[in-house]
UniProtKB/TrEMBL annotation:
Residues 33-100 form the RNA polymerase sigma-70 region domain. Belongs to the sigma-70 factor family. ECF subfamily. Residues 131-183 form the RNA polymerase sigma factor 70 region 4 type domain. This is RNA polymerase sigma factor. SUPFAM superfamilies: Sigma2 domain of RNA polymerase sigma factors, Sigma3 and sigma4 domains of RNA polymerase sigma factors. Gene3D superfamilies: 1.10.1740.10, Winged helix-like DNA-binding domain superfamily/Winged helix DNA-binding domain (1.10.10.10). InterPro entries: RNA_pol_sigma-70-like, RNA_pol_sigma-70_dom, RNA_pol_sigma70_r2, RNA_pol_sigma70_r4_t2, RNA_pol_sigma_r2, RNA_pol_sigma_r3/r4-like, WH-like_DNA-bd_sf. Pfam families: Sigma70_r2, Sigma70_r4_2. The keyword Nucleotide-binding does not apply. Keywords: Sigma factor, Transcription, Transcription regulation.
Length: 189
């Protein structure tokens, strides 16, 4: 029997519900969560490590952490996929720091990896910037704010966005380009 969740793109709400069930140690929910998200999370891990075997091992550890930490998920702080992507990214960075990768084609730009040691001033500035970004997103025409979030927070491809929003690929590219320009203008005020 196939879950209805597996037949379509998972929504933020459906993933949040699965995480709530996973927090209660529901193995079926965990299986559905894995089926709904493993491709996206593997992509995140693989883009950093560029090594399939190690990426697969790290992904297993990512899902163990998701299982263990599901009860700490807070939908008011982040979307489910963003929360899981953060776990994946942090676990991948830990793998790099352990320096256990074989000499391979790994070329990591460490300037792109966030420094977790923020000062209180940094934290305040980041909070202020996030509030401003939220206000700027609210200023976008509907459904463009949702599209920006899906593209840049949830990792949807342009093609996935075209399918989700029922628009031609060219329209999606134009909307994203214009929306980003509008956000940049708003953030620079």
């Amino acid at each position: 029997m196939t879950s209805p969740l597996l037949s379509e793109q998972p929504t933020t709400e459906s993933l949040a519900n699965l995480l709530i069930r996973v927090a209660k140690e529901d193995r079926l929910a965990f299986s559905e969560l894995y089926e709904s998200t493993h491709r996206k999370l593997f992509g995140i891990v693989y883009r950093i490590l560029k090594n399939q075997a190690v990426s697969e091992e790290v992904l297993q550890e990512v899902y163990l952490r998701i299982w263990d930490k599901a009860s700490s998920f807070d939908a008011s702080v982040a979307s489910p996929i963003t929360w899981m992507a953060t776990i994946a990214r942090n676990r991948t960075i830990d793998e790099i720091r352990k320096n256990t990768l074989p000499d391979s084609e790994v070329d990591v730009d460490f300037d792109l990896i966030a420094d977790d040691s923020m000062t209180p001033d940094d934290s305040f500035a980041k909070s202020r910037d996030l509030l401003k970004l939220e206000a700027c997103l609210d200023g976008l025409e509907s459904p463009r704010a949702e599209m920006i979030k899906a593209a840049y927070l949830d990792g949807f491809s342009r093609q996935e966005l075209a399918e989700r929003f029922g628009q031609p690929l060219g329209t999606i590219k134009t909307w994203l380009h214009r929306s980003i320009k509008q956000l940049q203008g708003c953030m620079n005020l």
